[in-house]
Design goal:
The protein is mainly α. The chain has 2 domains: about 90 residues, no CATH class; about 120 residues, Isoleucyl-tRNA Synthetase, Domain 1 (Orthogonal Bundle), CATH 1.10.730. The radius of gyration is 21 Å and the shape is elongated. The longest helix has 22 residues. It has 10 helices and no strands.
Amino acid sequence: MGFLPTGSADPYGQRRYILGVIRLLADGYIEGSLPEYFSRAFDLYMQGGFALKDKKKVTEDFEEFTFQRLENYLLSAGLKYDVIKSIKDGALRNIKDTISRVKAITAVRDLPEFLSLVAALTRAFNILKKTPADRAEFSLNLLQEEEEKALYEHFKETSDEVQKLFLVPDMVDYPEVMRKLSSLRPSIDKFFDKVMVMVPDETLRNNRLSLLDMVVNLYLKVADFSEIVVEGSNIV
């Protein structure tokens, strides 16, 4: 614990062992969350009187090390680096679920309509990154333009449908989730074509930012699509 391999040296065979556990989880021979397994192991070491580093730091090191092994495992299966990077957050909690998400995204990864959606989401993500997060809650009454009203209605409908698909966590139909999420693209495109987000009116501006925030967070249930590389894109 706290002794991760460096360079080509791996005296304890940790890379091989972790990859073996990932394969067992991926193939369904065992079930569980890698971070939870690690937390339990850490506590057992502490109970045994071992002097270990800070749990938070060791956990962060373990998760980064383990994700690198998962990344290599998925790359060797022919999956793309940017898709793998997009699912990094929470990827170790359920390896089978993570692989299902990667495969569903990969299936649509190179479709023009999906890349257009990614471009729109990245634009929304970048706008939100440049603005304070402590804004007022979204208000339906502040919607003015037809396109922002349409986006909200389509978002609400899609969100309800996606929530139903997540009711059984271990049996999520990710291809269907992707179809539902992709259906939002025309509404997002029209919103950006017709609605000015960064208007002088602070109340109106914050409400539009909150709308975009809700849309982005819906997609984050699957992946951070801003990590998907769109060739020739110069999104700001």
